[in-house]
Amino acid sequence: MPRHTPVPGGVAVLELAVALGAPPSVRFNDLPQPVVRHEGKWLALIGIPLDTLPGTHEIVVESGKGRQLQRLEVRAKHYPTQILRIADKKMVTPPPELEARIEAEAARIAGWKRHFSGDTAPETRFDLPATGPRSAKFGVKRVLNGEPRSPHAGLDVAVGVGAPLRSPAPGTVLAVDDLYFTGKTVVIDHGQGVLTLYAHLSRIDVAPGQELRRGEVFGASGVSGRITGPHLHWVVILGGTAVDPELFLSD
Ligand code: ZN
Prior knowledge:
Radius of gyration: 18 Å
Bound molecules: zinc ion
Structural class: mainly beta
Number of strands: 21
Distance between the termini: 13 Å
Helix content: under 10%
Oligomer: single chain
Number of helices: 2
Shape: globular
């Protein structure tokens, strides 16, 4: 189980006021969230987007009893700011002729993030997919050449080109692609809206639909896409939103 961390970019683990029986379904921000049975109770895992305001929110629980609302208290969390300077203008602002491609790719990524395979119990205990230091943490706010950019929605692992990447848990390959920003990219489905995404690969060894065991190599790290040096950019998605991957690591 991920650690209960009800903050922007975190995961809330909420006990549902629903008797055991048919599994309830839970939505937050109108997106389905995973529900697991644990010690005789139903627990919902709620992915909280980084831009969520602290305060009281509501989740929607549908069960045999009908539709209920349940409160979700989101606490504030401070994420550090990283100031970046990049001299190469092409690295900062993509050329206008690539706008259509970038837009189409963003829509594809948004589709993967909403993928919800309801029939599988989600896998939520992850091993780090590459061996290396964690070089950029999740949630860091970025200011690039004086302009605020999107916060860092993944965890970076410092590895060179060609390091093996291993599935952090059992899963099924949902997508492989080659995208402008994230380069060679793999998405693995771990069940019920829990997905992991890997960016900037040098090599992809798998195809969509392929099942992976925990620790199975699916590709190698690299420097593809829009980055200044090789590393793995690892994203964990839960309930349609990127959350902090370190909440799922057992160490
Ligand atoms: Zn990154």
